[in-house]
Inverse folding.
């Protein structure tokens, strides 16, 4: 409802803004609201670029798989540049990157591995024996999206657990509680999650 209201405001305002930027979740690009927005942008004379990108794109290089929709619009006087093409990788623009996505280890606090308050409770493993947990190794180059429920009593699909023990073991069944209980699983700390969301280090220390 909020975005529909803003679309209506954009349609009717006398002096529309020169630039617009929008972030939204995956599948917004196939919604009716998306179609209405593009039509208004076309009518108001905006040049539009659309993206579906994740921090795991090699041109960004952050090991957190958080696919999002982005729209950038610039007032140009004609709506002919609303193409409907969505860029799905920065390689479409810049070519293949020579860089690799960073390892999880680059985003960790050394002291957090020993923080008992971050340990994943046994019940999270033993009570969800049929659930395939997302467990990442310090050498991993991806982690799943962290949600606001991460670290709470609800764990399904809220974010990755970090393996801190038996680091020689990288291949195992992620739904085997007997193995998972030996891996020293922990939650990522708030500062580690912030790094995986690209917050500047100076803000993490403030």
């Amino acid at each position: 409802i909020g975005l529909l209201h803003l679309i209506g405001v954009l349609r009717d305002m006398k002096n529309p803004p020169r630039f617009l930027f929008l972030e939204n979740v995956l599948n917004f690009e196939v919604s009716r609201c998306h179609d209405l927005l593009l039509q208004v942008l076309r009518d108001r004379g905006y040049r539009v670029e659309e993206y579906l990108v994740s921090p795991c794109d090699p041109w960004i290089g952050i090991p957190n798989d958080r696919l999002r929709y982005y729209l950038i619009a610039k007032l140009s006087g004609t709506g002919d540049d609303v193409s409907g093409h969505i860029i799905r990788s920065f390689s479409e623009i810049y070519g293949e990157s020579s860089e690799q996505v960073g390892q999880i280890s680059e985003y960790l606090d050394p002291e957090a591995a020993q923080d008992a308050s971050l340990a994943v409770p046994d019940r999270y493993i033993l009570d969800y024996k049929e659930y395939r947990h997302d467990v990442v190794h310090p050498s991993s180059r991806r982690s799943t999206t962290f949600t606001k429920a991460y670290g709470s009593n609800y764990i399904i699909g809220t974010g990755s657990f970090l393996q801190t023990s038996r680091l020689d073991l990288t291949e195992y069944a992620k739904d085997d509680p007997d193995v998972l209980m030996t891996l020293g699983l922990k939650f990522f700390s708030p500062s580690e999650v912030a790094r995986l969301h690209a917050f500047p280090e100076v803000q993490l220390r403030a």
